[in-house]
Every structure is written in structure tokens, then in C-alpha cells.
């Protein structure tokens, strides 16, 4: 994780090479606007107190309020949160929604917490950062190991601090508290729309396309369901416990894998599958590889062994810049995180809009509005790959930086 922010800056530098960015804009984009750190003292169920490090990084708000998830993970560090907040600023610009970029995290392994302890950590986070977040200031959302319930606790705590209703302070909430229809599957749905567009451009069809998915949480599991329904062959999936593969030319039955994971806590040993490691999954002979877990999974040590011709990055930062170079040389198309997983923040934006108006849309309306945003973002990025002769990541950065620059220049 130590290099995540360096990787992000390297991606920015590569984009700066292909587009003229005003020196002042580039200098500002190399640093977050604000970094806030808190210690969260939590009384544990056994009566002892543990203190957890918590962060919120507000990277850029030239285009709108800071926006980005909160991660609960034992490996969270400031460097990682900075990188994730930077990618959020790029992502909101790629899909052209009026929000900026931010991110948060708590250094904690939530698997070691009881539900009551998890609630206390979530509430402590919202209370500590309440002066800095808000519907018009900075809007957190779920990320790794945080979910709708965590958002509900955070919203409730924030409202107690400010003394009024403020559903738009977080997104990814449960429906009964002002969440949006379609938010749960939104990240996967957006990635799915982008993949469908890409397949058309490269002349492939779903029913001839095999997929391996690393990570079987919110992003990965929904993606497996969407792809299975559309006729793709799901060759393998994995989670932090390990992976499972279908027999040659067969497809996993996603509902069975979900049922097994719900029962046992992992996909490992799901019925009618063969166990593989998460690293082996990355190197399977499939058409599409979907990293949907954590950063730095595809690096210069394994990039040359990747056999997929398309990598769809549902996770943030799964591919290092060194691996990008190797993959580009091999002709692998990497659909970058800032485009592939932007469906999540786009439906978060819809949720925020609905909260401001107190008027709610059906799931069909949400999907109708998501589709053109993802299709436009894909074609904007794809066109830049053609005109500038760059890979999709650099094209997405060129597009985003030009939009950020326009906003920053207009502000003077
Ligand atoms: P999640 O906590 O719901 O799921 C994470 C999954 O990754 C789990 O199945 C976990 O077991 C698995 N995992 C962890 N380490 C692994 C490893 N070494 N090998 C294989 N699997 C491993 O989190 P999520 O919300 O699905 O997020 C996954 C990724 O997608 C993250 O990079 C996140 O930043 C990104 N993302 C999520 C959203 C969203 O809306 N949830 C939006 C944009 C980006």
C-alpha cells in the first residue's frame, strides 16, 4: 500500500505529458486540499478502551463538494487514503458529475469487532469528522468493509451533532433512510455498461466471453450476477479466503456461490468448484479479468503472466503503473478504475440529488440515468485513446484533468 499515492502521482504526470496543464493547476493537483486525522477512543465490549486511527482526506472540491467512501481495514494508512481521494477527484470529473474527491478510513479490522463495537466506531467517526463533512461540504459513502448499516449510523450521529435532518451527508444509506434504489449494485452496473460498450468496439460478444473476478463483496458479487445474467461465462471468483474455479468451459452458478459464502463466510469450497488461490485467478486464461478487491494486485511481478485481453478495474488502484506499461505492450486493454467503477459514485450523486429534493426515483429511473453517463464517459475516454494514441487510463486522466482545470481556472 505504501506506494499508492506515488502511483497516483505517476498517473497524473503521465497525463500531464499528453495535455497542456497550467503549472498552477498541476501543482495544486499534486497535493490534497486538506488532511484530517483523529484518534477514535472506543470502549470495547470487555470494558477496555482501544484507540483507532481515523482519516479523512479532502483532495479537491473545484467541481463540487468532496465525495468519497470510508474504508475500515487494518492496512489503511494515510498514503492509501490520499491516493483514493485523488482518484475520486479524477473519477467524478471523468463521469462529469458536480462533485469533488475525498476519502476516509479507519485502521481497524472490522472482523474482530462485535456489531456493537462496529456501531461505536462508525458513530465515533461521524462525530469526530462532523465539522468537516455535510451535504454541501463533504459526503462520505461505503467502501471496503463499510455498508448501508454503517452509513445509517454515521448519518444518525451526524444529525445528532448538527441538530437537524441531513440525509445528504452520506450516500449508500438504507432505502428507508433516504438511500437510492440501485445503489447497492451501482458500481458493478456501471462497470457492466462500460464493458458492454467496449465489447462492441472490439467485436466480442457476451456469450463468447469468459470472466474471472477477484473479490466477492459489493462490487465483485454484483458484477458476477450481472455478467452471468447477460450470458458471460464466470470462470472463477475469489475473496480474502481464496478462490474457486469452474470446470473447463463451464460457468460458476453465482447464486450457489453466494449461498455458500453466506453460510461459511467465504467462496472457498463452494459446490461443484475447484479451489484456486486469488493469485492464480489473476493468471487464468480468460477473456476478461475483473479485479474487485484491493490495490496493487497486478504488478510488474505478475503482469507478464496475465492472459486476459481486457482488465476491468472495479477495485481502486489494482494495477501499478509499472504493470500498466507491461500490459499496454502486450496489447491488454485496461479499463481504468476511474471509469470502470464510477457507477458507484454516479448513483451516490443521484442519491444526494434525491436527498436534496426529498423526491425519490424508481430503480428503472436510476438505471436509465446511469446508462448514458457511463456510455458518454466511455466514448469520451475511448476517443482520446484514438486521438492521442494513449491507453485508457491516461485518456481518462487527460479528460478529467481538463475538466478540473476548467473549473479551477474559472474560479480564478
Ligand atoms: P467489500 O468489502 O464489499 O468487498 C471486498 C471483497 O474483496 C471481499 O469479498 C473480500 O473478501 C475481498 N478481498 C479482500 N482481499 C482479497 C484478496 N487478497 N484476494 C481476493 N479477494 C480479496 O468492498 P467493495 O465495496 O466491493 O470494494 C471492492 C473494491 O471496489 C475496492 O477497491 C473499492 O474501493 C472499490 N469500489 C467499491 C465501490 C462500491 O460502491 N462499493 C465503488 C467504487 C470502487
Structure description:
The protein folds into two domains: 32-166, 3-Layer(aba) Sandwich (Rossmann fold); 186-340, 3-Layer(aba) Sandwich (Rossmann fold), CATH 3.40.50. Helix content is 46%, strand content 17%. The protein contains 14 helices and twelve strands. The strands form two sheets. A seven-stranded mixed sheet has the order 9-8-7-6-10-11-12. Strands 1-2-4-3-5 form a five-stranded mixed sheet. The chain is globular, with a radius of gyration of 20 Å. The two termini are 35 Å apart. The mean pLDDT is 96. Bound molecules: nicotinamide-adenine-dinucleotide. Nicotinamide-adenine-dinucleotide binds next to α7 and β7.
Features:
412 residues; 14 helices; 17% strand; 2 domains; Rossmann fold; five-stranded mixed sheet; seven-stranded mixed sheet; alpha/beta; binds nicotinamide-adenine-dinucleotide; single chain
Residue share in helices? 40-55%
Structural class: alpha/beta
Order of helices and strands: HHEEEHEHEHHEHEEHEHEEHEHHHH
User: What's the CATH H-level homologous superfamily of the largest domain?
Assistant: NAD(P)-binding Rossmann-like Domain
Say what the CATH topology of the largest domain is.
Answer: Rossmann fold
- Largest sheet: number of strands, sense, barrel closure: 7 strands, mixed
Strand order of the largest sheet: 9-8-7-6-10-11-12
The distinct ligands, each listed once, are: nicotinamide-adenine-dinucleotide
Amino acid at each position: 500500500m505504501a506506494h499508492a499515492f506515488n502511483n497516483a502521482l505517476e498517473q497524473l504526470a503521465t497525463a500531464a505529458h499528453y495535455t497542456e496543464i497550467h503549472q498552477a493547476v498541476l501543482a495544486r493537483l499534486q497535493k490534497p486540499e486538506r488532511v484530517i486525522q483523529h484518534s477514535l477512543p472506543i470502549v470495547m465490549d470487555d470494558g477496555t478502551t482501544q484507540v483507532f486511527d481515523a482519516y479523512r482526506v479532502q483532495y479537491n472540491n473545484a467541481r463540487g463538494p468532496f465525495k468519497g467512501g470510508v474504508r475500515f481495514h487494518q492496512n489503511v494508512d494515510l498514503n492509501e487514503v490520499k491516493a483514493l481521494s485523488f482518484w475520486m477527484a479524477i473519477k467524478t470529473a471523468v463521469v462529469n458529475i458536480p462533485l469533488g474527491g475525498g476519502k476516509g478510513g479507519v485502521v481497524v479490522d472490522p472482523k474482530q469487532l462485535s456489531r456493537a463495537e462496529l456501531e461505536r466506531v462508525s458513530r465515533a467517526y461521524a462525530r469526530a469528522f462532523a465539522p468537516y463533512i455535510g451535504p454541501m461540504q463533504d459526503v462520505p459513502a461505503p467502501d471496503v468493509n463499510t455498508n448501508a448499516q454503517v452509513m445509517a449510523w454515521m448519518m444518525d450521529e451526524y444529525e445528532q451533532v448538527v441538530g437537524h435532518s441531513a440525509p445528504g451527508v452520506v450516500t449508500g444509506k438504507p432505502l428507508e433512510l433516504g438511500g437510492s434504489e440501485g445503489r447497492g449494485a451501482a458500481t458493478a452496473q456501471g462497470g457492466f455498461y462500460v464493458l458492454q460498450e467496449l465489447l462492441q468496439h472490439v467485436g466480442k460478444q457476451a456469450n463468447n466471453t469468459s470472466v474471472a473476478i477477484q473479490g466477492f463483496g459489493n462490487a465483485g458479487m454484483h458484477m458476477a450476477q450481472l455478467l452471468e445474467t447477460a450470458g458471460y461465462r464466470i470462470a472463477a471468483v475469489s475473496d480474502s479466503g481464496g478462490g474457486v474455479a469452474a470446470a473447463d468451459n463451464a460457468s460458476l452458478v453465482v447464486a450457489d456461490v453466494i449461498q455458500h459464502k453466506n453460510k461459511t463466510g467465504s467462496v472457498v469450497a463452494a459446490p461443484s468448484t475447484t479451489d484456486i488461490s486469488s493469485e492464480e485467478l489473476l493468471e487464468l486464461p480468460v477473456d476478461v479479468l475483473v479485479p474487485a478487491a484491493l490495490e496493487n494486485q497486478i504488478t510488474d511481478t505478475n503482469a507478464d503472466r496475465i492472459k486476459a485481453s481486457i482488465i476491468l478495474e472495479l477495485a481502486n488502484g489494482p494495477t501499478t503503473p509499472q504493470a500498466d506499461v507491461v500490459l499496454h505492450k502486450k496489447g491488454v486493454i485496461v479499463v481504468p478504475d476511474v471509469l470502470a467503477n464510477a457507477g458507484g459514485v454516479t448513483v451516490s450523486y443521484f442519491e444526494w440529488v434525491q436527498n436534496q429534493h426529498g423526491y425519490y426515483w424508481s430503480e428503472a429511473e436510476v438505471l436509465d440515468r446511469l446508462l448514458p453517463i457511463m456510455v458518454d464517459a466511455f466514448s469520451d475516454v475511448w476517443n482520446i485513446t484514438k486521438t492521442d494514441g494513449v491507453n485508457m487510463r491516461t485518456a481518462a486522466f487527460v479528460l478529467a484533468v481538463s475538466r478540473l482545470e476548467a473549473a479551477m481556472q474559472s474560479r480564478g
